[in-house]
Amino acid sequence: MNLDFSPQEEAFRREVRAFIARALPADIRARVRAGRPVGKDDTVRWQKILFARGWIAPGWPRAHGGAAWSPTERYLFDCETVAGDAPFVNPFGLDRVAPVLIRYGTPEQQRQFLPRILDSSDWWCQGYSEPGAGSDLAALATRAVADGDGYRVSGQKTWTSFAHCADWMFCLARTSVEARPQDGISFLLVDMRAPGVTVRPIEILDGLPHVSEVYLDDVRVPAAHRVGAEGRGWECAKYLLGFERIQIAEVPQSKRLLATLKRIAARERPGAGPLARDARFADRVARVEIDLLAHEVTVLRALAEFAAGRAPGPRASMLKLVGAEIRQRLTDLIVAALGSASLRYEPALVEAPGEAGEAAAQVAHWLYSRASSIYGGSNEIQRNILAKAVLGL
Ligand SMILES: Cc1cc2nc3c(=O)[nH]c(=O)nc-3n(C[C@H](O)[C@H](O)[C@H](O)COP(=O)(O)OP(=O)(O)OC[C@H]3O[C@@H](n4cnc5c(N)ncnc54)[C@H](O)[C@@H]3O)c2cc1C
Asked: What are phi and psi of 2, to 5 degrees?
C-alpha cells in the first residue's frame, strides 16, 4: 500500500498553504496561534472567505456547491489549515447534516438548507444525546407526536455543542414505539427560534460556553422538516456519524499541540534551563511524538483504503480512541511544561495579554480535552467495538 502523496496531491497542499498565508486575517491567525477561543463572528468571517474561494464544503458534490475533494485532499486541507493557524469551521452544518440532506433530503429541503449552510447564514447543532441516552443512543425518549401536517416535539437534549448560537438543530425523536428501539425514530430539523425551544448553557470544566441543555416543550415541526421516511431516522443518524471518523482522529490538531509543547518546553526557566533538556521530560515528549507519528500512519492507511474504495469500518474506532488519548497526553505535557504559570486559571484569563493569557488558554485546552474521550462515542465504547468487531472477542 502506497502511503506517499502523489505529485498532484503535493501541489494541492502547496496551493492550500499559499492561500491560507494570503487570505487568513491576521487578527484571527493571532488568536488561534495564542490558543485563544475563536468566537462565532470570527469563525463566520473565515468561513465566508473559504466560501468565496469555493473551499467551504470539501466533501460535497459540485452540483451542490462543494469542492468534491477526495478524502486525501480533505486530509491535506485540514493539515494545512491547522498548521496555518486557521480556526475550525463549525462542522455540524457542513459535515454532518449536509451529507444527510444530500443523500436523504428532498429537493425542497436541499434548496432551503444547503445554500444557507454554504454561505454561513445558518449555524447548526446536533441534538442526539439526552440525559438517559448517550452511549445507548437508541434509548432516546424525546417524542414527536403527529399533529396535522407535522409533529409536536417534547423532550430534553443535552451536551448540545453550539446550541447557544445555533439557528437550527437536527435531532432524533421517537415517532412510534417499536420492539427494536432503533425503529420508530425520526430525523427532524428544528428551528431554534420556534416557540417551546429553551437553551440552557452547561458550564463544563473550563468554564467556557461549549455545550447546552436544549428543552423542547411542545415544539411544532412541519412534516416538510423530517428528513427521510418517518421512523427511519436511525439510518440517517448512522450515515451522519460515519462522516466524523477521519476528522475525529485529530492528527492535525495534535501536531499543532506538539509544536506548542516544544515551544513552551524550550523556554529558559529561572535557574533551571529549558525543560526540554530534562531527560525524563524529553522522554515523555519523544514517546507521545512517536505515538502521534504511528497514529498518522494509521490515518494514512485508512485514507489509502478509502481511495481504493474500501471503508475502514469498525477499525475506525481505533482512530477515535488513539486520537483522544494522544490529545490528552499532549495537553497534560503542555500544562506540566507551563509549570506554576498553569496554576492560576479562570475563564476570563484566556483573554489576558501576554504569557498569563497564553498559559490560561492552554489550561483551557487541557480542561476541555478531558471530554475528548467522551464525545463522538466514549473510548470504552470504541474498545467494545474493537473487541467484538475487529478482534472477534
Ligand atoms: C464536550 C462535549 C460535547 C458534546 N457535544 C454533543 C453534541 O453536540 N451533540 C450530541 O448529541 N451529543 C454531544 N455530546 C454527548 C456525547 O456524545 C455523550 O456524552 C457520549 O456519547 C456519552 O454519553 P453519556 O454522556 O450519556 O454517558 P453514558 O453513556 O451514560 O456513559 C457513562 C460512562 O459509562 C461508560 N459506558 C457506557 N456504556 C458502556 C458499555 N456498554 N461498556 C462500557 N462502558 C460503558 C461510558 O464510556 C462512560 O464512561 C457531547 C459531549 C461532550 C462531553
From this structure: -90, 120
